[in-house]
Amino acid sequence: MDHSQTVADERRKTLAGLLNKAFNQVDLPLPGRQSGKVRESYLLRNGQRLLVTTDRLSAFDRILARVPYKGQVLNQLSAWWFQQTDDIIANHLVSLPDPNALLAENAAPFQVEVIVRGYITGVTSTAIWRRYELGEREIYGYSFPEGLQKNQALPEPIITPTTKGGTSGHDERLTCAEVVSQGHMPAQAWEQVQQAALSIFKRGQALAAQAGLVLVDTKYEFGRTADGRILLIDEVHTPDSSRFWKAGSYLARFETGAEPENFDKEFVRLVYAAQGYRGDGEPPSMPDALWLETSERYIAMYELLTGQPFVLEPYPVEPRLESNLRRAGLLE
After folding, report:
1. Exposure of 314 by Cβ count < 10 A (0-12 exposed, 13-18 middle, 19+ buried)?
2. In what order do the strands lie in the sheet with 33-35?
3. pLDDT, average across residues 125-135
4. Phi and psi at residue 167, in whole multiples of 5°?
5. CB of 233 closer than 8 Å to CB of 223
6. For residue 183, how many other CB atoms are within 10 A of its CB?
7. CA-based Rg of the chain, rounded to a whole angstrom?
8. Res 190: pLDDT
9. What are residue 50's phi and psi, to 5 degrees?
């Protein structure tokens, strides 16, 4: 057995032992706490925001599991992408006081999720392919011709915005025109956001290609600071927010009608969809092997995209996090 396989086996053993110790939540003695599906957020007295990324995994608009090191991957990978794209538009990153925490410039989020798609694919209710296979041809304000195949590349990437939660509690589809006409964002801000989103996506596709991956689609969030600047916020090109395929096998598999080799959270959705679950009712239980593979995939994604080894920081996360926040002067 070669050294790399031995290292992989040891890592898998470590991850398996942490499945029941994954980072679920933290209650820090800080003001302004807000809880999202994956992150805990605190508005600090100096006007900055502390974002703590947990190991919770969300799909179909609900939390399905906790996955070891998922939070650390999301936090550190997003920081890497912020640095790769800050020449396109400024972002909220100030520093990483802990592998699971990001100190951010505070920005009020726009209530629109900016989704950029380069391919027609997906199994969720808001995915283009899902709407297309149900017979729709006018989707998100775009006209799609007959005869498209699942996982086919679009002529150019398009923006398909959704609300955040909406009146139903689920993301609701919007056209680009409705973002302004329904009052979700001012026209000038929306124009700036669209230009930035398409440029960031193009940069992401280029860097993903260098790693042997296809950036298929992604979700961006933007916000406005108190002095009126628009920032890229939340996370960028992570396995949570983006869909990636292995580039080397994409074309051959597409031509034979086989699913691409995905390398993101989509494979979890596909496992659930194969059991007939698309978000309605109680989700079926899944074996530990699924969550172990998820953890390994997230770590592999970090290493492929950044070209850097991923360091398994100590678990449990909470005491390490609090110690690092005190060292950074963010906790007394």
Report:
1. exposed
2. 33-35, 39-43, 48-53, 101-105, 93-98
3. 91
4. -70, -20
5. yes
6. 9
7. 20
8. 98
9. -105, 120
| Token pair listed for 241 | 């927010």
Residue 223 pLDDT: 97
Centroid of chain to Cα 2: 34
CB-based contacts of 237, cutoff 8 Å, min separation 6? 77, 78, 81, 204, 208, 215, 218, 305
- Six-digit token string for 111: 């209530």
Q: Where are the alpha helices (DSSP H) in the chain?
A: 3-17, 70-85, 128-133, 176-181, 187-210, 247-255, 266-274, 288-306, 317-327
Smallest CA-to-CA distance from 128 within 255, 243, 254, 252 is with: 243
**Domains defined along the chain, listed by start:** 3-327 (3.30.470.20)
Tell me, what amino acid is at 79?
A
**pLDDT band at residue 2 using 50, 70 and 90 as cut-offs:** low
DSSP calls for 48-115: EEEEEE-SEEEETTEEEEE-TTHHHHHHHHHHHHHHHHTTTS-B-EEEEEETTEEEEE--EEPSEEEE
Whole-structure pTM value: 0.93
User: 11-15, 168-172, 265-269: which range is least confident on average?
Assistant: 168-172
